């Protein structure tokens, strides 16, 4: 569970997040695929080109930021994501790569 200060910090970033828009997730995918091109095999590259994937990730980030105090509201979306990831046989080490790039620590 997140403490109140962390929740307040995340909520304070929502306006910046909204202003940045999917440019944030476009940068994430560009960086991740540059450093880990093998991950292109598990993503629908058509959805990458048309922007659907970066919009979906951006929407998920916004939903999480806006529901930090009501995570149950996210459960249906999280279950859909988990089912999709299971069907694609996503491995634990792949989550680590994604997490590194989401955090911006890839260099």
UniProtKB/TrEMBL annotation:
Q: Which residues form the Globin domain?
A: 1-107
Molecular-function annotations in GO: FAD binding; heme binding; metal ion binding; nitric oxide dioxygenase NAD(P)H activity; oxygen binding; oxygen carrier activity
Record's keyword annotation contains Transport: yes
What keywords appear on the UniProt entry? Dioxygenase, Heme, Iron, Metal-binding, Oxidoreductase, Oxygen transport, Transport
**Which EC class, in a word?**
oxidoreductase
| Recorded superkingdom | Bacteria
Say which species the protein is native to: Serratia rubidaea (Serratia marinorubra)
- Name used for this protein in its record: Nitric oxide dioxygenase
SUPFAM superfamilies (UniProt xref): Globin-like (SSF46458)
Q: Name one Pfam family in it.
A: Globin
Q: What does the similarity note say? A: In the C-terminal section; belongs to the flavoprotein pyridine nucleotide cytochrome reductase family.
Give a yes or no for keyword Isomerase in this entry.
Answer: no
Q: Biological process GO terms, please?
A: cellular response to nitrosative stress; nitric oxide catabolic process
* The EC number(s) this enzyme carries: 1.14.12.17
